[in-house]
Amino acid sequence: MTSVEQPADVRLESVVKRFDDVVAVDGISVEIPRGSFFALLGPSGCGKTTTLRMIGGFEEPTEGRIFLGDRDVVGLPPYKRDVNTVFQSYALFPHMTIEENVAFGLERRGVPKGERHGRVAEMLELVGLGGFGKRKPRQLSGGQQQRVALARALVNQPRVLLLDEPLGALDLKLRKQMQLELKRIQHEVGLTFVHVTHDQEEAMTMADRIAVMNRGRIEQLGPPQELYERPATAFVAGFLGVSNLLPGTVEGPDAIRLESGELVRADVGGRTGRVAAGVRPEKITLGPGGGENELTGTVSESAYIGVATQIVVRTPAGVVQVFAQNVGTGGHMPTPGTAVTLTWAPEATFVVDRNGASAGDDSEEEDT
Amino acid sequence: MGSFLHRHRGVAPYLLLAPGLAWLTLFFLLPLAFLGYQSLQSGSFPNYAFTWEFSNYAKAFTDFRPQLMRSLTYAGLATALALLLAYPLVYWIAFRAGRWKNLFLLFIVAPFFVTYLIRTLAWLNILADEGPVVGVLRDVGLLADDGRLLATSIAVVAGITYNFFALMALPIYVSLEQIDHRLLEAAKDLYASPTQAFLRVTLPLSAPGIVAGTLLTFIPAAGDFINAQLLGTPQQYMLGNVIQSRFLELIDYPTAAALSFVLMATILVALLAYARVVGSEKLTG
To answer: Which ipTM score applies to this complex?
Structure first.
């Protein structure tokens, strides 16, 4: 799966992109290993699409270098780069048939007609559109057009496939289906995929490695589990899933004194001073037995959401969200006003610095 | 009225159609029928008689063939010239002019604020023997020292090109303006150089505009007589000039009517041939 040992297919070195005085990408360095499914994840305006467009050649970096394999491609126009893009809007050529759309890149590269035909048919089969070749794009549904866009890019067997929010225009059910299908296709063709999305669930479903971006920088880079279990910043903790962040101060290598006075056990990872102790809502147990860390409080709200019960608890350290899995039948719901004790394990506790912005107060920035 | 329409829903489309149909019948079909009737008359003014005089048509074809051919040639040349001049210009406006787009479009339309006749008279001055254009052309040797532009085919074709330029430019502009720029990015992403992207994506997508502009230019140009009259001599007269003089000066209604039908039929044939070449799909949008 994650083939970190493989040589990098895409390498960005201190890449900066400024539009007039707006800094869209602020010094990004990243290596994307061959054959990996890599996601650039972040809110709108974080610079993820600009980064993708720089790899594709549609924007040139203001500073820094971009390598495809060993070749520095800065200054090279898109049509001379061995990458293909699946555009957010699909950008299918309306005056051409599906076949002609998919054959476009092969034709430009001078692949002979006979071979072209075979490869186009094969690719349409792979994306489940065999027999649709003679139709025009407008005769296809959104999901089918999306597959054509994918086939049109994949058929060229580029070094890297760039996906710019390719599922954004699809409805939820179709999106879930295409997520798994994209993953399947990536396994089948074994190409490097670089995928831009603002949907954390989508990124976690598909990607081997995720770079979480915020304000033109990479906040954290790693496999999905690592980002979820060990977020390095408050932003990552808030952007991927729900987090409870409890402000406090480091008291030792494995202890944080919360502002409300309780001691929480956690590996502080060398941090000192003002930090926040974080814990995911599903790692907290109501009542004893959850682990060493403990908080008491009163239930202020509870909601039954099927697979779990969502409980909001007021504690001296702050408001804490708890997801209690509905494992048994007819599970009891704690009523508002009930006093409860929350417990969780030190291993389930992560520590982030308290200076950075959290995803919660992320205001809508202009989309770059 | 409201409840009437409610009860007779099927009537509404015909009611909407009625004013236009009435207009067309009164001011197009009836005059056309009358023209056809006139074209088969014989005799001399004012004593014409309807005699199924088909020889009027034979005469129209034989006696005025040079003028008919000239109408088609001049209109064809002017259409081609207008296309070659308009396409790069509106391409630049649509893709490169940014916020100045509307200003440049205004420049294209601005001459239309002046009447047709005045515009053509202005060209009389521009192309005059002692005018700036002839002066420059004589200086650089493209024109002999006693060479002139006025009273030549060049002047007439130039005049027609100028007068119908906006009718060519605007439809092409509209079709270029509608092209999604991301399609061009996609073409470049798929290894097309800028030239290939233009030939494979931009040009085909602007074809409806080219077809519309061509028709809007060619049809009135083929029937034009003002340019030949003001900028040319009888050596440059087109069929329109003949029709005009037969109707208004020689009072030879049957020949004039027959010539009108000949011109209409010729244009129709030219259009059908054009449609076969470009495909009827593009002709009807």
So the answer is: 0.81
